[in-house]
Amino acid sequence: MLAAMQRSGAAWTRTLLLQLLLAGPGGCLSRQELFPFGPGQGDLELKAGDDHVSPALELKRALRFFDRSDIDSVYVTTNGIIATSEPPAKESYPGFFPPTFGVVAPFLADLDTTDGLGKVYYREDLSPSVTQLAAECVQRGFPEVSFQPSSAVVVTWESVAPYQGPSKDPDQEGKRNTFQAVLASSDSSSYAIFLYPEDGLQFYTTFSKKDEKQVPAVVAFSQGVQGLLWKSEGAYNIFANDRESLGNLAKSSNSGQQGIWVFEIGSPATASGVVPSDVSLGLDDGAEYDDEDYELVTHLDLDDLSTTPFPYEARRRGDPGTHSAPRVLSPRRLPTERLPGPPTERTRSFQPPAETFPQQHAQVIDVDEVEETGVVFSYNTDSRQTCAHNRHQCSVHAECRDFATGFCCSCAAGYTGNGRQCVAEGSPQRVNGKVKGRIFVGNDPVPIVFENTDLHSYVVMNHGRSYTAISTIPETVGYSLLPLAPVGGIIGWMFAVEQDGFKNGFSITGGEFTRQAEVTFVGYPGKLVIKQQFSGIDEHGHLTINTELEGHVPHIPFGSSVHIEPYTELYHYSRGVITSSSTREYTVMEPEQDGAAPSKIYTYQWRQTITFQECAHDTSQPALPNTQQLSVDSVFVLYNQEEKILRYALSNSIGPVREGSPDALQNPCYIGTHGCDTNAACRPGPGVQFTCECSIGFRGDGRTCSEMEKTRCQLEREHILGAAGLTHPQRPGLFVPECDEHGHYVPTQCHGSTGQCWCVDRDGRELEGTRTRPGMRPPCLSTVAPPIHHGPSVPTAVIPLPPGTHLLFAQTGKIERLPLEGSTMQKTEAKTLLHAPDKVIIGLAFDCVDKMVYWTDISEPSIGRASLHGGEPTTIIRQDLGSPEGIALDHLGRNIFWTDSHLDRIEVAKLDGTQRRVLFETDLVNPRGIVTDSVRGNLYWTDWNRDSPKIETSYMDGTNRRVLVQDDLGLPNGLTFDAYSSQLCWVDAGTNRVECLKPGQSGRRKVLEGLQYPFAVTSYGKHLYYTDWKTNSVVAVDLAISKETDTFHPHKQTRLYGITTALSQCPQGHNYCSVNNGGCTHLCLATPGSRTCRCPDNTLGVDCIERK
Question: Which domains are seen in the chain, by residue range?
Answer without folding.
Answer: 28-276 (no CATH), 427-659 (2.40.155.10), 668-706 (2.10.25), 735-780 (4.10.800.10), 806-1064 (2.120.10.30)
